[in-house]
């Protein structure tokens, strides 16, 4: 049974291949040495070492000059390929260190993605066009679970009521939540507020809204629920009920809702997994969203 034995050339270096390409592409060895940033003697020694390790003569005398032998074309072609690929790899590494490659998985609640940070997201995409950027818009509870399960790298969500193990939290912003009513209704006495169309029971913001409405003495008769602010806005426009929404959402667009009063405020936070390996692309996104940190 025959066994194929692979021949391995000992310790050939990329630097030696760079010398060979430089000599082939420049009229004199002095020019080639200047191109690769070494002395002519260092260039000569490096190429002599390449010949020794190859075990094949690469140069011949032409008068007082040493020139590449015709048979060295195969080695030269290989050297050019190695140098080109190494240059590509070095450029990739430089981009990676400067957060220009890789993947970023960002999660945001809708108001953050649409109203608070769209300009920052556009800026990041413009500066880092080669990053594989993925944005997921979802309610806060879903984003937190996806962060903890490593489906997302960074999220912007409503501040959780309790500390989430395995995460770090950074304050992002505080926004106002206001009461909005159909145009046919006046704010009137607290006991006459409603009925309500609100975020679903169990959501971070719904808990905050319910707490503040009870503190104000309002009854909470909920006739419809939705995670989608646009749906809640349309329900109010149709006269189905009152709602409480972030001012940035409710008062945007061609048909803004009519504000009754500010009910409360909520904090939005940026969350990441604690102890995760540093990722330059994620760090660059975070710096773009929060330039003062």
Structure report:
It is a single chain. This protein is α/β, with parallel strands linked by helices and 293 residues long. It has three domains: 14-97, Arc Repressor Mutant, subunit A; 103-166 and 269-289, Periplasmic binding protein-like II (D-Maltodextrin-Binding Protein, domain 2, 3-Layer(aba) Sandwich); 175-266, Periplasmic binding protein-like II (D-Maltodextrin-Binding Protein, domain 2, 3-Layer(aba) Sandwich), CATH 3.40.190.10. It is built from eleven helices and ten strands. The protein has helices spanning 14-25, 29-36, 40-54, 73-97, 110-116, 118-127, 140-148, 204-216, 229-237, 247-250, 280-289, and strands spanning 59-62, 65-68, 103-108, 132-137, 154-158, 167-181, 196-198, 222-225, 243-246, 258-273. The protein has a six-stranded mixed β-sheet, with helices on both faces. Strand 1 (59-62) and strand 2 (65-68) form a beta hairpin. Helix 1 packs across helix 3 (40-54) and helix 2 (29-36) packs across helix 3 (40-54). The chain is rod-shaped.
In short:
This protein is an alpha/beta fold and 293 residues long. The protein contains eleven helices and ten strands.
